[in-house]
Amino acid sequence: MAGFKIERDIKSPRSDYAWNSMGICGVCNEVVMFIFETSNKASGPSQDNHFSWNFSQQDIVETFPKKTGPRLTEATPENVLKPYIEAEKSFESGLFSAAASCYRKAMERAVRHVNPDATGMLNARIRGLEKLQILPHHMIELLDQVRLFGNSSMHEDDEDPTYEDCEAAREFAYLFLRYAFTLPAMVADAKAKQSK
């Protein structure tokens, strides 16, 4: 929490031990609101506006906006989910280079599941999927977008990835995982229910 700066706080009307505070996130520079409960009526968060006061006496009860958490896709293999969840957490924290790298890594592992016999770097594996027509062309384009974004975010010296670029890669990765893993699992589940 050291990345937050308290701008304003007021005693909450709901309790003598609660405070409503407004702060600025040190990562994304967006406004965040907190409701704190303290063990001491007299002390509020703004007495030290960098959150270094005694946390054993302070509890964050709620934050606004609420953290959304990672968007997960059902039936996605564990080794694909791991970098995908890391990417989601990085994205939510404003760490766009890290998010881009992890979205790309998740796509690389996903492609290995879709075609385990393919070899080479991610681009070669995608071209193999394209040649075998295992995936529709628009899914190949999604993979390429995440691959290219991941590459440029890691190797571009002068430009850092933007929120908008990372949000697009995030959406593409999510759509691909839904198509590659969730939809087939949903179809298999529906078929199994019909055969009962």
Q: Please, could you describe this protein's structure?
A:
It is a single chain. The protein is α+β, with helices and mostly antiparallel strands. The chain is 49% helix and 16% strand. It contains five helices and four strands. It has helices spanning 78-92, 96-114, 122-132, 137-155, 163-194, and strands at residues 4-11, 18-25, 31-38, 58-64. It has a four-stranded antiparallel β-sheet, with no helix packed on it. Helix 1 packs antiparallel against helix 5 and helix 2 packs antiparallel against helix 4 (137-155).
Topology:
Layout: E1 4-11, E2 18-25, E3 31-38, E4 58-64, H1 78-92, H2 96-114, H3 122-132, H4 137-155, H5 163-194
Properties at a glance:
single chain; 196 residues; alpha+beta; four-stranded antiparallel β-sheet; elongated
Helix content: 40-55%
What would you report as the Rg, rounded to the nearest angstrom? 22 Å
Overall shape:
elongated
Spans of at least 5 consecutive residues whose pLDDT stays below 50 are 48-55
Q: How do the strands line up in the largest sheet?
A: 1-2-3-4
Q: Could you tell me the mean pLDDT? A: 84
Class per helix and strand makeup: alpha+beta
SSE ordering: EEEEHHHHH
Number of helices: 5
Main sheet characteristics: 4 strands, antiparallel
Strand content: 15-25%
The counted number of beta strands is: 4
Distance between the termini: 52 Å
